[in-house]
Amino acid sequence: MKLKLFLLAALAVYIFPNVIFAASFSLTIDRPKSPSRIDNFNLTGTSLDRPNATRNITVKCYKKGPSDSNFVQFDTDQILIPGGNVYSCSVNNSTLNSDGVYSFKTVASVSEPSFEQLTSDIVNYDYNTSGPSTPVNYSKERLNSCDYKIKFKTADDGKTVKVQIFRSDTLSIHVDAGAVLTSVNISPNTEGEITNSVPICGKDYYYVIRAVDSSDNASGTIGDSFTTTTTTSTTTGSVAGSQTGGTGAIVLTDASAQVAEPGQTTSDTPEPIIDNSQAPTPSILGTSTEDRKKITKWLLGAAAIIVGYLLMKARRRSKSK
């Protein structure tokens, strides 16, 4: 009989892990993608309370940057609904005020009927905006009416992890993350080449290339002479092109035009676009007080039926002996 009850409890834990987990005060923190050049994102996680709880949870977000000696709070206190929910603290360029590794943690607390406090794990975010240098020694060779060979050498910058290639059948080449023809993983200070087959044999095509680092910073472009390169970029940090051998960075997605001189890279510094919009805080299904009441009643009812059945079966066995 005891074995059956133990198996019943173990089965309930297996089938309803979220319900069992939600039976105590808890706190989690999501790990941001790192390294990265993004300076505007939400630090998120969840804090859940006991079923049928009516107390609010207060979550505070803390960061420790390269120039901070201790953790300091950023953003306002997050007050969660009774039972718990998702929290979301805004990380922006005032939080990330210099390149380097930032540590984040959160603290959740409740005050009724007695004070309880939890501290999350610490997650790290490597903020990097410096970017790789532009490749050098670009050349293009037409192998036949259908194929081109592109050659280049990556800069000795210690940052390049890949080179992106862009193509156009006109002298105007659009450059952004969605326009990448192909990319090749490659180390710094390395000779590289790629053979590309064009859609229409016999037609002239033009190319530019750029380097990208592990944080998705992009260098300036270098490519065919007399081409006009339009770079689209969306970022909340600084955006800058660089001459060959420079260290400026161009982000990989949405809004400023640059012109490449013959055989050179772009060098204008487009105005950054700041996106301060915040995504609404999502809610977690099944964490409201009403949802938990329904789940608890259903679970207790099912357990009562099973236990009653086992007791009745045990009594019948004892009578038959």
What does this structure look like?
The protein has three helices and 17 strands. It has 321 residues and is an alpha+beta fold. The chain has helices at residues 2-15, 17-21, 289-320; strands spanning 26-27, 41-48, 57-64, 72-80, 84-91, 100-110, 116-119, 123-127, 136-142, 147-153, 160-168, 172-175, 182-185, 191-197, 206-213, 222-223, 228-231. It is elongated. Strand 6 (100-110) and strand 7 form a beta hairpin. 16% of the residues lie in helices and 33% in strands. It has two domains: 2-128 and 277-303, Sandwich (Immunoglobulin-like); 129-276, Immunoglobulin-like (Sandwich). The strands form five sheets. Strands 3, 4, 6, 7 and 8 form a five-stranded antiparallel β-sheet that branches. Residues 16-22 and 233-289 have low confidence and may be disordered.
